[in-house]
């Protein structure tokens, strides 16, 4: 897969055709897990999230893919962008009558394949995006962990693989980032 990613990065269009079947199911799985972290009644479906994120990935001018993990890390960032754009569009359509609320804990539940209904840790997806941007200036790795877990739907182990760090480090960064985000977003 890494060889195909690198060939695609060099402009070999045939590599992209070979790559799509290999990455689609994983992108779909990530999108489904990311969508579990979204509020009930979210109008974007996992398939649409995959397609939008994939279009953003293939439209990158010089992807420079380093590895499978790098690709899926960038895919998580693309999914974040799609979800934030979708939230903004919904908010604009409602003329500012309120943004979709999401939960930070839902990312953990999504990664574990469980449901945490009734979680009171509600935040606006746009506010979360702004807070993550701020967190990235303070600690880029913590911001990446949240992005991979929340927007990419990756498990702790998958995030560790993408970032090339230990499972324990991802758990520690996830816990610290969640605490910082709660404080930043006014939830504790």
Q: What is the tally of beta strands?
A: 2
Rg measurement, Å: 16 Å
What number of structural domains do the residues give? 1
| SS strand fraction | under 5%
User: Poorly predicted ranges (pLDDT <50, ≥5 residues)?
Assistant: 109-122
Summarize the structure.
The chain has 188 residues and is mainly α.
Note the main attributes of this structure.
188 residues; mainly alpha; two-stranded antiparallel ribbon
What does the model show?
This protein has one domain. It contains 9 helices and 2 strands, in the order ααααβαβαααα. It has helices spanning 2-9, 13-36, 46-58, 68-93, 105-112, 125-138, 140-151, 156-163, 167-184, and strands at 101-103, 122-124. A two-stranded antiparallel sheet has the order 1-2. The protein is globular, with a radius of gyration of 16 Å. Residues 109-122 have low confidence and may be disordered.
Describe the secondary-structure layout:
Layout: H1 2-9, H2 13-36, H3 46-58, H4 68-93, E1 101-103, H5 105-112, E2 122-124, H6 125-138, H7 140-151, H8 156-163, H9 167-184
Antiparallel strand pairs: 1-2
């Amino acid at each position: 897969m890494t060889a195909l990613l690198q060939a695609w990065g060099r402009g070999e269009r045939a590599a992209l055709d070979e790559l799509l079947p290999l990455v689609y199911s994983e992108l779909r799985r990530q999108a489904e897990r990311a969508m579990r972290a979204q509020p009930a009644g979210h109008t974007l479906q996992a398939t649409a999230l995959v397609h939008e994120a994939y279009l953003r990935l293939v439209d990158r001018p010089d992807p420079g893919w380093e590895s499978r993990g790098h690709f899926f890390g960038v895919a998580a960032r693309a999914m974040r962008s799609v979800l934030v754009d979708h939230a903004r569009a919904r908010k604009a359509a409602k003329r500012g009558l309120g943004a979709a609320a999401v939960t930070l804990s839902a990312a953990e539940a999504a990664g574990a394949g469980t449901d945490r209904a009734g979680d009171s840790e509600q935040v606006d997806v746009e506010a979360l995006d702004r807070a993550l941007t701020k967190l990235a200036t303070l600690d880029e790795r913590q911001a990446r962990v949240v992005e991979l877990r929340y927007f990419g739907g990756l498990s702790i182990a998958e995030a560790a693989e993408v970032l090339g760090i230990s499972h324990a480090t991802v758990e520690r960064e996830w816990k610290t980032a969640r605490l910082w985000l709660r404080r930043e977003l006014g939830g504790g």
